[in-house]
Amino acid sequence: MTVSPDQLDADAADGSEIMKQFVPASPFVALLGVQLEDIADGAATLLVPYRPDLTTVGTMMHGGLIAAAVDIGVMVAAWAGRPVPDKLRGVTASLSINFIAPLVEDGLRVRAHRLSTGRKTSHVRCDMFAATSDALVASATGTYQVG
User: Which fold has domain 7-146?
Assistant: First the structure.
């Protein structure tokens, strides 16, 4: 099953409400097990629990998982608190990720916050941490277009 814009409440109060609907309904987000822990104006915290099928070698989580979590974090923070646009759509325009330390046998916590907001485009910073130790795993920036 896929999620389409017509399945979301276009009369939602703001982009945070749209993301509260979208995150649990997106098949890809569900495949990764991403959970929305918190959302506020321009900020979001997500959790990706550890799963052996998301590893690359031994118990080290795959870098592609971290990159996908960055993309999701950028999207959610870009929408968070924004007015709902006429068209419920969005797209990541750019991502830049710096991997700092391996994530070994631990979940991933994504903390994203919007750095700037234009008419349609937002610039977002994401920091990824080991869920239990809070050790910094990666840091990223992204640009996202809403609407």
Answer: Thiol Ester Dehydrase; Chain A (3.10.129)
